[in-house]
Every structure is written in structure tokens, then in C-alpha cells.
Design goal:
One of its GO terms (biological process) is NAD+ biosynthetic process via the salvage pathway. Its cofactor is Mg(2+); Mn(2+). It catalyses: 5-phospho-alpha-D-ribose 1-diphosphate + nicotinate + ATP + H2O = nicotinate beta-D-ribonucleotide + ADP + phosphate + diphosphate. By secondary structure, the chain is an alpha/beta fold. Helix content is about 40%, strand content about 15%. It has 19 helices and 23 strands. A seven-stranded antiparallel β-sheet has the order 15-14-1-5-3-21-22. It is elongated. The N terminus is likely disordered.
Length: about 550
Amino acid sequence: MSVDESNNVHTRLQVHNCVVQPLLTDLYQITMAYAYWKSEKTSDTAVFDLFFRQNPFQGEFTIFGGLEECLRFLENFNYSDSDIEYLKTTLPPTIEQSFFVYLKELTAKDVKLYAIDEGSVVFPRVPLIRVEGPLIVVQLLETTLLTLVNFSSLMATNAARYRMAAGDNVSLLEFGLRRAQGPDGGLSASKYAYIGGFDGTSNLLAGKMFNIPVKGTHAHAYITSFSNPSELKTKTLINLNNGKEQDLIDLTLSWRTTLSNLLHISESQASDGELAALVSFAIAFPEGFVALIDTYDVNKSGILNFCAVALALNDLGYKAIGVRIDSGDLAYLSNKSRETFVKVAKEYNIPWFANLTIIASNDINEETIWSLNDQKHSIDCFGIGTHLVTCQRQPALGCVYKLVEVNGTPRIKLSQDGSKITMPGKKDAFRLYGADGFALIDLLKKSVEDTPIAKTKLLCRHPFDQKKRAFVVPSEIKPLYKVYWENGHIMQRLPELKEVREHVKESLRTIRPDIKRNLNPTPYKVSVSDDLYEFMHELWMRNTPIGELS
């Protein structure tokens, strides 16, 4: 990496959440660090794997997020004077003062971090991140790395699932800040929803910080704050056709009377307050007019008032954008609205009017979108909040950070629960592809093994079931790990958010449709090499106590 590239990376990483610091951790990390230090383990080295055991949302894939934030954390890893003073008051008085001196001098310069590219599709048990370095330091990183990866990956995966449900031709907007788990949760949700496939956010700070497109309309409060067109103090708008000021209210009222007959909607049932609000908003945003039309009644008031304002704008040379529906039967109301737009377009020979955007919100979740698809809706854009940003269907991913090697010697954690047995030692991960371009299987090998070669027969084994094994002849093999941090520096160019977003799409395209489907998806296979299998089970047997009957 050149000096210029290094400087660019450094500059980008200065956008750093000050909450993400060494004290954003669990107490037991510090108490273990002291016990290690007391045991004179300051020269010991270790390897930890960060991985998860089960895909979220009853699915069979996950999107890896949070890597850049982990690297920011490493770059800024250092205990401040105030951190040390706080720890002195919190830890037992028996802690030796020289430990605090040691702690104050710690940095991540001797840490080496391998990782899968952010935005990649990943699977259970394949380490997302491998951390190597001084035992005490890499132990102290655990909690913070987990909190940075867990929600980011969960959120990106949730967003990707919404994108797959909606399809490529429907826009998705994240509207969840007000329902998010606090300010940091809201910002993270906006960022990783965009990475996962959303097109924009209502969150202005996220837009500023992460360069995400910001979108929004208005609330029901804006509509209900008006009572009658007569109360409007600003009533005119410049006619783009002749440059003259023209009364938009009179023009809109005239159109409403005309449309009332065409659409068979009684003008007396339409809300004058709603009309006044829409005219006011149109005067403020004539070239970006999107109206909320469900405050009173979509079919009896909202659609009539909107079309009247939109046609008045059209007379003055402006094109309305569309409507938002925030309640009711979204499939039915969207179809009725589309029918109305098509009818008006034909009647007045305004082709673009038929394609006005219909935005739907109202507590939408993934299942709602699938149901609306079945009902053949006419929605162009979904605004999604609560279920997206809080991941209500599954609030946690469950990543873990497990010790797999100390001083070059592999370590294994055993458990009566087979899913919690770790795979020991330093490992490399590879993705094997078939001739059709789809991923066949992920393969874990000991790092000392030879790199697998494409178009050769490879024995792939289930990590824990000796009966499950298969020969695979991959057309292509891609190593999953890159060195992202070494000698106190970031070693790879960090992609922009848009690039990570594109990588999510590309990575998902390599996964078979049956693995990504919503109902009863096919599990993707993760395997180990024969050498790793034999080594792991030999170590397993060596560390398992032998029972005794008497």
C-alpha cells in the first residue's frame, strides 16, 4: 500500500464513533487481563476466531457487516488517562499499580487481523475474522469486536432479505430512526440497511455521515394542521410556461370539481383541510411533490385532492412525484390509486401521470411484502421502519469469539452441546464454485495445509458427522481471507459504502436461489478438509475425560 493510499485510509477512519473505545467492553475482559498479567503471560500469543453458529431469520445465509468499524477500533485502541483512573476506582484495591502502567501502554500494533470482505455472504462456523497477537491484547478486543459485528451483520442481512422480497424494481427506504434502539442503533441501522440493499433513509445524520441518499415526505400532523384553503397566506406559484405568478388554490379547486365527476367521488366528502395542506406543500416543493393521502380517507378524499393539486401543478409546468399511503389495505389502495392515475392520464393525455410513484408504509415487515406480492399490488416504494431497524423477527445474531490457539498450540472447547464445540487451530477458508458460477460449498483447512486447487477432486467432510462426506471437483476456488490489519496499519483499501452495497449484490448472485428462498431454504454446506477433520477429532478425544463405571 502506497503512502498516499495509507493517508487516504487514515483520513477516512477519523470518522470514528467516540463510544467505540477500549472501555466499551465487559468487566471480565479486564479481570482476565490482570490474571494473565499476574501469571506472567504477557509474552504469550493467541489466535481467536469470530464466527456465528446459526443463520438469522430462519434463513440460510448471512451478510457480513462491521469490518471497517472493527478496523477503526483497532486504530484507536488505547486506554486514556481517564480510563485508567476509572479502572483504579472500579477494580479491587489489591490490583498492583504496575498493571495499570502496562495497560496504559497497550496498543493493537502487534495484532494481525484476517477477515472476509465486508458485504460478503457468509455461513455458520466459518470465521468471519481471525485475530492473532499477544494473548492479553486479543482477549481485550473480544467484546468490542462482537458488538461491532453482531448488529451490523444482522441488520445487513435483514435488509438484504427485504430487498429479495421486494424485488429489484421496487425502491426501499429506511424510516426507522424514531423506533430504533437509541441514537447509535438508529445510525447503525441506517448504514447497514443501505449496505443490505435499501435505496435511502429518512435519517439526516446518517445521510451526512455515510453519504446515503435521504428521502422523506410529510407527516399526518402537517395535513391536520390545516382547516381550509382560505387560511393559506401564500397562494401563488410561478408558471414555468410564462414566468408569471398564478393562484394555485383557484386552479386546484377548479380541477377538483372537474375530477369529482370523472372519478365519481363526491367533492363534498373531500377534506378542505387536506386540500389546503397539499396545496401548501406543493407551493413549497413544486418539483418534488409527494403527498400523504390517507389522513382521512384515501378513496373519498386523499386521491381526489392529490390529483387536483397534481394537475394544477402540471398546468404550471411541474410534475408531481407521487403519493404515500400509511394505513389500510395497502394492496387494494395502491391498485385503486394506480387505476385512478391511469384514468386521469388517458382522459387528459398526460402519459407520465399513469406512472406516478406509490409509496407504502405502515409497520411493514418481510412477510407483509411477500403477501402484497401475492395480492399483485401496485406499490413502487416501501418505507420500512420498526421491523427493519429493530430486527424484530430475531434481535441478535449470536456471534462468538473463541480461543483456538495459544503459543502455536491448538486449543479446543468441548461441550455436551455439539454445536458449541470449537474447531481448533489456525484455519483458512475457501469457497468452491461449480461450473454454473454458483457456490457449492465452503471448505476450512488448517493453515499449514496446501491451498486447494480448482478442477481437482477434493474430499470435503462434515465437521462433526463422520458419515457425511463428499468429493467435490470445483471449477473455481476463492480464498476468503485477506490480511486487513498488521503492524498497526490497515492493509487493504477500504471500499466506499456504495461499493460494499454492490458487493452484497454480487455475492448474493453467487448463491443458489433455493438457499436464499423465504420458505424452507436449502442449507448451504460448510465442510472441513480430511486433515482438519482427523486433527480435530484426535484433539477432541484427547481432551475428553474417560468415564468410569463401578
